[in-house]
Amino acid sequence: MLTVASDIEVLARFGRALADPIRCRLLLALREAPAYPADLADALGISRTRLSNHLACLRDCGLVVTVPDGRRTRYELADERLGHALDDLRTAVLAVETDRTCADADADADDKGRC
To answer: What SMART domains is this protein classified in (predicted)?
Structure first.
């Protein structure tokens, strides 16, 4: 059982990041490989402005970092263990209930993308 406030805050921060489908897609894309914002926007089919808001949220949550690369900035997961955590979380949820969907699973209520 979680009793330490910092443990709860860490999980809540991760939950806020995962609460948006676009941020989930970003994390999954970055799990595969670091990427540049323009490439991520194209791959996800969203505007660069919208992508920027979602990346800012993930940075604020401490889940992604920027890496300068000449004149460009590359994004990657802050720690490779996050990729493993995403895989573990996905398989654990599927193992528990495969026929359930969340009522808001397809909703993008926070169109601005910020946490």
So the answer is: HTH_ARSR (SM00418)
In angstroms, the first-to-last Cα distance of the chain is: 26
Task: Kindly indicate whether the domain formed by 5-96 is annotated with CATH number 3.40.50.11740.
Answer: no
Q: Exposed (0-12), middle (13-18) or buried (19+): which is 51, by Cβ within 10 Å?
A: buried
**CA of 113: how far to CAs of 56, 57, 82, in Å?**
8, 7, 20
Instruction: In whole angstroms, give the CA distance from residue 85 to residue 15.
Output: 12
Q: Say yes or no to pLDDT of 63 above 50.
A: yes
Amino acid (one-letter) located at 6: S
pTM for the model: 0.80
86 within 8 A of 27, measured Cβ to Cβ: yes
